[in-house]
Amino acid sequence: MSTTPARVVTDGPRRGLDPVPPPGFSGAAALDGAGRLVGVAVIGSAVVAGPANASSQARLAPPEDVRKLLGDQANAPAVAAASLESAKASVVRVICVRK
């Protein structure tokens, strides 16, 4: 499992990540120092009129939204002792290759 350090920044009601994580981290769990979920990283490019802009933005989907989504799909989230090591042990990576 890959990790990258970032800090949560607040802009009014929105929360983001600084620095923006590298490509491939969209949808990744954002954990605090104790291993608790603080959100899910949502990374995208800024869409503006004019020349192409390569800057990315990262925001955090709140954990309440994740719990609601899981509940709506009848998938109750497991509650266990939080730690970065337990998060690493629970990850399955699926890589699709086109031929």
For the record, the count of structural domains works out to 1
Low-confidence stretches: none
Query: Helix- and strand-based class?
Result: alpha+beta
Measured distance between first and last alpha carbons:
26 Å
Multimerization state = single chain
Number of helices: 2
Q: Into which percent range does the helicity of residues fall? A: 10-25%
Mean pLDDT: 77
In short:
With 99 residues, the protein is an alpha+beta fold.
What do you see in this structure?
With 99 residues, the chain is α+β, with helices and mostly antiparallel strands. The protein has one domain (7-89). 16% of the residues lie in helices and 28% in strands. The strands form two sheets. It has a three-stranded antiparallel β-sheet with strand order 3-4-5. A two-stranded antiparallel ribbon has the order 1-2. The longest helix is centred in the last third of the chain and has 10 residues, at 63-72. The protein is globular and about 45 Å long.
Please outline the helices and strands:
Layout: E1 7-11, E2 14-18, E3 29-31, E4 37-45, E5 56-61, H1 63-72, H2 84-89
